[in-house]
UniProtKB/TrEMBL annotation:
TM stretches of this protein: 6-23
Record carries keyword Transmembrane helix: yes
Organism field: Micromonospora lutea
Keywords: Membrane, Transmembrane, Transmembrane helix
Protein name, entry field: DUF2550 family protein
Length: 151
């Protein structure tokens, strides 16, 4: 009987964790402005280090949440102020295996450090519009245009 109880507790814990992940995602996505977004968390190996997730636009911030995480807070926050796009490229080598074929990789520079983000080609236009849009009286950050593959 102890084995059955152990299996039952294990199944209950797994179901509880899955339920929590769905509730977390529902809470984060409840007010819209969500995009699928991968962020490169490490550059130790070429083409590796991409973490899938979703981004949420909140005012002047893009908040990135890991797809498979129990954290309710965003893992990374990119502020529109001080964020510039240096380069746009297609996935290369190992990256083609870890993300959909129609995704574009943007190398950005923020106040803190460089960051690489990947998103669908159709989402890039919206992201760049958000980046260039600024409150009245503010200066929009420059968006580099060299080395951009045709969309």
């Amino acid at each position: 009987m102890e084995i059955v109880e152990g299996v039952g507790i294990g199944v209950a814990v797994i179901l509880g964790a899955i339920l929590f992940l769905f509730i977390r995602r529902a809470l984060v996505t409840r007010s819209g402005g969500i995009i699928r977004l991968s962020v490169r968390t490490t550059t130790m190996l070429d083409g590796r280090g991409w973490s899938p997730g979703f981004g949420r636009f909140v005012g002047d911030e893009l908040r990135w949440y890991r797809m498979f995480s129990f954290a309710v807070r965003p893992k990374r926050v990119l502020s529109r102020e001080g964020l510039t796009v240096e380069r746009r490229r297609l996935p290369e080598g190992q990256e083609r295996m870890s993300m959909p074929a129609d995704w574009i990789i943007l190398r950005c520079t923020s106040r803190h450090a460089p960051v690489e983000i990947a998103m669908a080609r159709s989402t890039v236009t919206g992201f760049l519009s958000w980046l260039e849009a600024a409150p009245p009286g503010a200066v929009s950050p420059p968006v580099a245009s060299q080395d951009w593959p045709a969309a």
